[in-house]
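Re: the 416-residue chain
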Amino acid sequence: MSDVNADDWVSSGHRPMRFPEFVIVIASIMALNPLAMDMMLPALPNIGAAFKIPVANHLQLVLSTFLIGFGAGQFIMGPLSDRFGRRPVLLGGMTVYAIASVLAIAAPSFETLLLARALQGFGTAATRVIATSIVRDCYVGRRMASVMSLAMMVFIAVPVVAPSFGQAVLLVSQWRGIFVVLALYGLLALAWSVLRLPETLPESERRSLAPADILSAFRQTLTNRQTIGYAMAAGSVMGALFAYVFSAQQVFTGIYHLGHYFPLAFAAIATGVAIAGFLNARLVGRLGMRVISHGALTLYAVVASILLITESLNMLPLALFMALSALMMFSFGMMVANFTALAMEPQGHIAGTASSLYGSITTLIGIAIGMAIGQSFDGTLMPFSVGFFLSTLAALAIVLVVEKGRLFKPHHHPTA
């Protein structure tokens, strides 16, 4: 990656933006999603008190309904962007996000808040799908993985600082103030995209919205062994991550009694993803996507095993849990961009539809696993430890099937 800014490396598809601005813009629109997720973490008890929610696990719905909207929205964003182009769908989704943030500010009931959260998630579905599609429009193979890693390295600061940012907002405002911040950020990202982000899908490459054509694109995506396999594997590892996020506030404040210091612990652990994004962006061009992601998946399985054993032996102090969680984040960060690039690599001709299906499959699988684990929280880390271990084994088994038992080596493409 030492030549990342070389003229022959950088695509002309995102002009007038130069490479650094392109990465930052992609990262900023992708960041709408983790910002809306993680800023809410310290506010969950406040929301529970405001709406008199008697069961603490029910507050996880503030997070999971957002992700349900996000997962469901991706089904339609891809085909729309393949038909009408990236810009109009992206700008429309960001507008929905801003409107939903305003609805959340004024929500008179918990049910209305959940509706607003689902709409927020639906709006960010466009940002995730279109960001991935735009990168795929401009780059392929290891170059695509490198750009995705650089974008993730920039925007990964969001989940690191978002809980602390949310806690800071709570010091000067009520929980509704967090949605004011989210609305303002959404409008800023929208304005930047309107002014600077070009259309990257030429008219000649746009696809019809005829049902037969959409079903054909879905079939091409779902029947591609590499695409569907890595989507399922990514969903499995994402399930453990979602479960961690859903229950993080309860774990750090209920089990380890950190109180208001919880955002600091969460931020320290999340730095593992930032380090992974930086390393992956520098190494993927030399080592390839499979070597890095398969190695990270192996590490993920080792971490899950250690976590389960230590929790079973009642030997999981805060320091060890944080170290294992940081390694989990690091492994996930080394996997996610490469799994996405591997899944999208065969789908350049239908990048929008493939990206939407990939995002929907991974998110909905992740939500199903994450909610099952999160709603099983019983005041201990045993449900999380068991769920993390089983979902990781499932991901490893899926990748072995996809790669026909041969890990770490590309089958056909030297760029992989």
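Residues 225-255 form the longest helix (31 residues).
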